[in-house]
Amino acid sequence: MKLFAKEEMEKVVHLDKEVIDVVEKAFTDLVKKEVQMPPIMRIDIPEYNGEVDIKSAYIAGYDSFAVKLSSGFFDNYKFGLPSASGMMLLLSSETGIPQAVLADNGYLTEMRTAAAGAVAAKHLAREHINTAGVIGTGAQARYQVKALKLVRDFDRLLVYGRTHEKAEKYKDEMERELGIEVTISRTAEEVVKASDVVITTTPATDPVIKAEWLHPGLHITAMGSDAEHKQELESSVLEKADVFVCDVVAQSIRLGELRACNSQRVIDEAIEMGEITAGSKKGRSSENQITICDLTGTGVQDTAIARYAYERLTK
Amino acid sequence: MKLFAKEEMEKVVHLDKEVIDVVEKAFTDLVKKEVQMPPIMRIDIPEYNGEVDIKSAYIAGYDSFAVKLSSGFFDNYKFGLPSASGMMLLLSSETGIPQAVLADNGYLTEMRTAAAGAVAAKHLAREHINTAGVIGTGAQARYQVKALKLVRDFDRLLVYGRTHEKAEKYKDEMERELGIEVTISRTAEEVVKASDVVITTTPATDPVIKAEWLHPGLHITAMGSDAEHKQELESSVLEKADVFVCDVVAQSIRLGELRACNSQRVIDEAIEMGEITAGSKKGRSSENQITICDLTGTGVQDTAIARYAYERLTK
């Protein structure tokens, strides 16, 4: 069993259309194939404001599958360390024997999460947009926007974050990397009202988006909430939307935006991303719709990206 | 983050009294300290008759904790491979950052499982025994009996296994290693009726021990059942016992012997091993009692042995 370091993976796996396709196929497989995807295992470390999540998914017919650990320790900045870390393990489906340790430190997760956002935007955002908006200024705020740029063209980006210094840093980096104008908004409201696509990337436990800010044609991808105490969108935001999509309904109900949803209609009408990517349901069907995608993250995406990475590492 | 191979671990971790103490302390910590021990995550691979179990436990105050993967692929013998494999990961409790991959291939699990059996026997078996009995002829059948020999002296061992060839091999090895007489019994009944301590180590889904075979002073450690469809002891066996102990009641109800128990009294009176090791409850209190210990395996044991191994590996 070999251990691969993050640097090795950064050489062969990039945020590009190939990775978006890998993740899109994972969503399709999630609905079309036999999948064993147990509920996420979470270990809370209250003393250090941390949690470790373990995800896995076995897709019938795949000769390997991943087990993914990701840590989120939100006091780590005090030690000058990033809050996220982790690894993926690839196991043989036929013998159960571990094949590789991908010590990616969360890199592959960042990739497959951003790619999922791109898949969501690909099917749900308006074809032509001008302005993208992002709530949050961390790693996913960067990756999600870069991924969005691969599926939608836009020349303006609005960003809101609670710490101005971080927002400044974000603006500098993204202007340089994307070559577009980045504006720091003073409120989340400004971002939502002026953007065609909004991505929320926060660990918020109180909603950051209110229903009154929504407008026709808007698409929101909410990827921050992945645990019972987190929520980025008010229930009324979900009720006001025309289309609500998530990666897995049961998971969104347990850990995502559907958890705090007061409307049974929204829950009943929720579409799973794989139904859209498999072609059985439509994404956006008119310019004026308000669409939402709630991403909590699935083991299927982890297995897909781990296999992709391993294939490219051992080529 | 370093990867340690099985051979390195075999050099520094052995089945001895030190390891039994490590595991005994783990049980005590399970009841005395704040422990985050989420339910076991299981991934079934039906096509290959396999399953992967993931266990973890964080004990407040410990600066690291383990995540343990173990695979049981029961067709592997067709490829000349062992059915069990796996690894342990050690993570920092303070930062969530992975410290080590212990590619033990199940070795540490074998150690901590056998050690748990020894802890059970230490508190539940009669002080003085003559004959030990084992149902099963695999790895745990070997380790459990060796561990028992560290806490109880006996000069005779009875073994029953479904495959005579394997039982012969077991007898040869164990006679050589323990220097005692090993007799192959033709039935499980013979083993139970003639032994002072019986250990069941099978993946049986139908009970292997019947109530009529029990006799005063007998202690049974059942370690085979660790999933919903497994069962080694009839419900009436549990009802006939004077003392029923398990590692974790909720887990025994979900995955162990209590799952098929028809008696609410047995469930209500079930004692957790940690209560005994912590001194709050008694184990065996008379020579004539029939005692049972159901071991399903806990993340606390994994964390304890992983930390112990890492400490000895990095000394």
> Distance between the terminal alpha carbons of chain A, to the nearest Å?
16 Å
Q: Using CB atoms under 8 Å apart, which protein chain pair has the greatest interface?
A: A-B, 43 and 43 residues
Low-confidence stretches of chain A: none
Structural class of chain A: alpha/beta
Q: CATH superfamily of the largest domain in chain A, called what?
A: NAD(P)-binding Rossmann-like Domain
Number of strands of chain A: 15
Structure in words:
Chains A, B: Pfam families: OCD_Mu_crystall. Chains A, B: It comes from Thalassobacillus devorans. Chains A, B: This is Cyclodeaminase. The structure is a homodimer of 315-residue chains. The first copy, chain A, has helices at residues 6-12, 17-32, 107-124, 139-151, 164-178, 188-194, 235-240, 249-255, 264-269, 273-277, 299-313, and strands at residues 2-5, 35-36, 41-45, 50-59, 64-73, 84-92, 98-103, 131-135, 156-160, 181-184, 197-200, 219-222, 243-246, 271-272, 291-294. The first copy, chain A, is α/β, with parallel strands linked by helices. Chain A has an eight-stranded parallel beta sheet with strand order 10-9-8-11-12-15-13-14, with helices on both faces. In chain A, strand 6 and strand 7 form a beta hairpin. In chain A, helix 2 packs across helix 3 (107-124), helix 2 (17-32) packs across helix 11 (299-313) and helix 3 (107-124) packs across helix 4 (139-151). The first copy, chain A, is globular. The interface between A and B is large, with 43 and 43 residues.
